[in-house]
UniProtKB/TrEMBL annotation:
Keyword entries, A-Z: Coiled coil, GTP-binding, Nucleotide-binding
Gene Ontology MF terms: GTP binding; GTPase activity
PROSITE patterns (alphabetical): G_AIG1
Every AIG1-type G domain range: 4-211
Family as reported in the entry's similarity comment: Belongs to the TRAFAC class TrmE-Era-EngA-EngB-Septin-like GTPase superfamily. AIG1/Toc34/Toc159-like paraseptin GTPase family. IAN subfamily.
Superkingdom to which the source organism belongs: Eukaryota
Lineage, uppermost ranks: Eukaryota, Viridiplantae, Streptophyta, Embryophyta, Tracheophyta
Coiled-coil region list: 242-276
Protein name: AIG1-type G domain-containing protein
Keyword GTP-binding: yes
Organism: Cucumis sativus (Cucumber)
Pfam families in alphabetical order: AIG1
Amino acid sequence: MAVVFPLTLVLMGRTGNGKSATGNNILGKKAFVSKKSSSCITKTSTFEKCVRNDGQVINVIDTPGMFDSSSESGSTAKEIMKCMELGSEGIHGVILIFSVRNRFTQEEEATIQTLQNTFGSKIVDYTIVILTGGDEFESDEDIEDYLSRECPLALKDILAACNNRCVIFDNKTKSEEKKDEQVKELLELVKEIIDQNGGQPYKPPLISNQKLAKEFDEVKTKLEHFCTQDFNSDPKLEEKLNEFMLEVSNTLERQLEEEREARRQVEERTLKIQKQYNDETQKLNELLRCSLQRPPPVPVEVEQQSERRLRIQSLFTSFKRLIRQLLF
C-alpha cells in the first residue's frame, strides 16, 4: 500500500455491533472502551490515531450508536456535527459496522438514506461495510458464502450501494497475523476508494477550525508586515491597512455565518426527519392496535384469528420500514 498521508476513518453502527473493538483492532491498541453491553458505551465521538509499521498514519473516529432505535434526536444531531468537525480535513473511509450475530433493525435498514440525507449523496462513494463476528465463519467460508446463505436483503442493498466493499472482522481472534490481514484488507479497500475519487477525501461541507486558524495566521503575518512599514513616509499605508482590516473582517464574518448556517441546517434536518419518523410510527402503531382490537364481522376459528393478527402485524412492520426509508 503506497498511501503515505494520514488516513481518516469514521466508524458508524449501532450499539453492540463491535465498533469500538473494531477500532482497537485497526489501531493495533486498546484506544476505545469496548465491552459487551445493551446500552451505548461510547457516549460521544472520539478521535484516536496510530502509526503502522510501514509508516502509515491512521486516524480513527469512533461514534456513538447513531443507528440505535433509542437515539435521541438532539444528541444525534450534535454527534453528527462533532463527527464532521473531527473529520473536517477530509474523510477517506466511512466504515459501517454490522454484526452477523445481531438481528438487522429498521434503523440499520435505512442506513444509506440516513447517511446521504445527512452527509450528501456522494458519501456512499467513501463507504465500506465491516461484518463483525468473523469467528462464527468456518475457516473456508468467505463473504460470498454468507451473502448466498443468510444475509438480510437490506444488507445486500447496502452492500450494492457501497459497490460491494466489505470486510469480515474477527475481533476475538488472538492471532496477530489474522488481525493484521483484516486491517490490510480494509486499507486496500480504502486505497481503492482514494484512487476512484481522484485522490481526494470526502470533506464535510463545514469550515474547519484548522482552516480558520490558518487564515488567522496569514492575517497576522500581513499585519506584522504592515507594522514594519514607515507610515510617515507613505500616507496611503494607513488607508491600505484600514482596507485590509475591513476586507479580513468581512471575509471571516461571512465564513463564520456560512458555518453557523450549515450547522443549523444539518441539525434541523436531522431533528425534522427523526420527528417525522416518530410521528408516523406512532400513527401506525395506533392503527395496528385498533385493527387488532376490532372484532371480526363473522365468527372465525381461533387459529384463523391468530393467522390474521400475524398477517396484519407483518404488513404494518413492512409499512413502517417503508415509511422510514422514504423519510430518511
